[in-house]
């Protein structure tokens, strides 16, 4: 019985409310950046990459300038341990009108942390980011989308007001599918409970397989003509879109990958970096042409009267 109720709730959550725009037209677009270093990539963790001294976060100014030219405001989620060394960049991000949130302390998966450790680290990460940026932060995204319900409740108790860690993979129905029982889906990709918001990262379901067209490796791997087709399919069923990118994908500065890294992993890490910033601009323009308005998650909450 309990399982049945849970399943009904889960189905209700995935039945999006009626759309405000015509099929094919877009409404809101949320561009998000996980502000982390290249060595935070999960598959580079066994190596001592950070000792190379090579950093990609200080190279995001071309991206920031592109955003200004396109009139796009972005939500950044910063890893706490790099906030201090990038304080000037965090302040520049805030000065340009973007939103800033927390992406954990050290980018370790949340599934590897106890609740107590998570709470302690989240407090420390928030302090680090707030003192570096000179402003309060209220948003969170879990590393590799590994948010769990008890940890979601913990960040609410800590005073965070929104999270963006929910992603669904049909091929992994249990893995990384955040339980949002009790939340109400108020709009495509937007869930609310008691003034707290969860923003979903969308996937495109094709023949039972979920393609994460919203960012990361797929955005780099697919040529723009293919992305345009996939986005067109997506826009038939959705009106909002969340994109996520990382600093190492926004520059083609060489990365000193460790020698022991397999060829497939190295390909996954490097593919499509060259020209990715231009491709991202084309995706932004495609979405804008179809009516999408790029706003930060904080602006979205303000527009809904939630903050
Ligand atoms: Zn990340």
Chemical compounds bound to the protein: zinc ion
CATH homolog superfamily? Glycoside hydrolase/deacetylase
Low-confidence stretches: none
- The succession of helices and strands, N to C, reads HEHEHEHEHEEEEEEHHEHHEH
Class from secondary-structure proportions: alpha/beta
Amount of beta strand? 15-25%
Shape: globular
Instruction: Please report the first level of CATH classification, the CATH class.
Output: Alpha Beta
Let me know the number of strands.
Answer: 12
Radius of gyration, in Å, reads 19 Å
Instruction: Give the helix proportion (percent range).
Output: 25-40%
Please tell me the total number of domains.
1
CATH topology: TIM Barrel
For the termini, the CA-CA separation is: 37 Å
Number of helical segments with 4 or more residues: 10
CATH architecture: Alpha-Beta Barrel
Mean pLDDT, as a whole number?
A: 91
Structure, described:
The protein has 307 residues and is an alpha/beta fold. The protein has one domain: Alpha-Beta Barrel (TIM Barrel). 36% of the residues lie in helices and 17% in strands. It has helices spanning 2-14, 61-70, 87-95, 115-133, 149-157, 216-221, 224-237, 263-270, 276-289, 297-303, and strands spanning 28-35, 75-78, 99-102, 139-140, 162-167, 184-187, 190-193, 196-201, 204-206, 209-211, 241-245, 293-294. The N and C termini lie far apart (37 Å). The model has no long low-confidence stretch (mean pLDDT 91). Bound molecules: zinc ion. Zinc ion binds at residues 34, 36, 103, 107, 143. Zinc ion binds next to loops.
Features:
TIM Barrel, binds zinc ion, five-stranded parallel beta sheet, globular, 307 residues, single chain, alpha/beta
């Amino acid at each position: 019985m309990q399982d049945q109720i849970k399943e009904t709730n889960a189905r209700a959550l995935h039945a999006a409310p009626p759309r405000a725009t015509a099929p094919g037209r877009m409404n809101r677009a949320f561009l998000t950046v996980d502000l982390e270093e290249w060595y935070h990539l999960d598959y580079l963790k066994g190596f001592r990459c950070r000792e190379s001294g090579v950093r990609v976060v200080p190279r995001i100014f071309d991206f920031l300038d592109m955003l200004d030219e396109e009139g796009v405001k972005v939500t950044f989620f910063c890893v706490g341990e790099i906030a201090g060394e990038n304080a000037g960049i965090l302040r520049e991000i805030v000065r340009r009108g973007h939103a800033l949130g927390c992406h954990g302390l050290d980018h370790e998966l949340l599934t590897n942390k106890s609740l107590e450790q998570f709470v302690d680290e989240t407090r420390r990460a928030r302090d680090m980011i707030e003192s570096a940026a000179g402003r309060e932060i209220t948003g969170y995204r879990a590393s590799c989308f590994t948010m769990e319900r008890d940890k979601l409740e913990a960040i609410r108790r800590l005073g965070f007001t929104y999270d963006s860690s929910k992603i669904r993979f049909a091929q992994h129905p249990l893995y990384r599918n955040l339980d949002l029982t009790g939340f109400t889906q108020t709009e495509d990709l937007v869930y609310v409970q008691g003034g707290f918001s969860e923003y979903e990262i969308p996937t495109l379901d094709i023949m039972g397989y979920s393609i994460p067209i919203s960012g990361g490796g797929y955005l780099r791997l697919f040529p723009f003509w293919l992305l345009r087709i996939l986005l067109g399919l997506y826009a038939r069923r959705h009106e909002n879109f969340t994109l996520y990118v990382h600093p190492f994908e926004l520059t083609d500065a060489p990365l000193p990958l460790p020698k022991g890294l397999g060829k497939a992993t190295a390909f996954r890490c490097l593919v499509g970096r060259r020209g990715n910033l231009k491709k991202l601009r084309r995706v932004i323009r495609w979405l804008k042409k179809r009516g999408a308005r790029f706003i930060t998650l904080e602006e979205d909450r303000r527009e809904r009267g939630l903050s």
